Model the fold of this input.
Amino acid sequence: MKNKNLLWLGVAIVAVVAFMAISAGRSDDTQNNANSDGNNTTVTKMSVGHINLANDLPAFVAEEKGYFKDENLDVTLKKLDSSKLATDALYAGDIDASAGSSTVPLLGAESTQPNKAKVYALGYTGNSEKTTLGAFVVKDDSPFGTVNDLVGEKIAVFPGGTAKILLTRYMQAQNVDTADIEWVEQLPNLWAASLQSGAVDAVYAYEPQLTIFKQDKANPVRVMGYGALEFEIDPLYLGGATISTDFINKNREAAKSYIRAYYKGIDFIKNNEKEAREILAKYTGVQPVVTAAMNLYPDAKLNDINRAKFQQLADILFQDKNISAQVDTSKMYVDAALTR
Done:
């Protein structure tokens, strides 16, 4: 009898161990938690890439205000050093979504690996001083009076192809020979030192660094070429809020929840700009005096995007052989049902 009991005990232990192994083998993307009413809710984990710029603000707001948590999402914000790296991570499946990285590498990836990511919002800039993404910055005592004087000089730009591609078109339109211009890719935290030391002759500075340059009274600068990126397309949809197609297919309701939370972030920025600027300072480490003065870039939700303007950007990139194939941007948007 004792041996029989031991046998049944052994069977029970094996069954428990097997159950635990099966449970442990579930996807790490979801977990069940009990809410305040004692009912189980499914929490979905997500990794969301960002490049630590104002383009990413809706994601920062959604995290700060608890919008992701309200939608039963456990979001990890992952900082990447360029839009190209963010796009590569998204297409490789290393992140589930990207907040506001540039649409230029996105369109490049789409031309070779179509349908791996979907657009749910686009951030945009314009060609005026108050709406542009950036401008050329030179030292106040430099000999450069206009953009045309930068022929053959070293110009620092944000890493990746976006600035180089669009600025080359702009300068060629001003009859500038761009063949001898040296584009120096640098992270923004290096721009001021490079300019002051003479390592570069000019910087095409994105916000918030553009405002940092202007506020630095100890090292005066001159700013020119506002709207250079946007001279052909206004609005220019450079901030691509995207989500992995694979994530949508596996977690459709979670994808819908994520977009809903992101849209809440967009709405909050419109209605609470002062607090949104404070959140930007907190998440990027930029001084509040800078975020209070810099340009912010609005985001268009799916139904508000001027789709012809986004297609125009794709067409220009293809015409200049910056992407390998024509991209039909109408196929890049999420199913509208996910935004409702």
Notes: The two ends are 64 Å apart (CA to CA). The chain has two domains: 44-126+235-339, 134-224. The first strand starts at residue 30 and ends at 34.
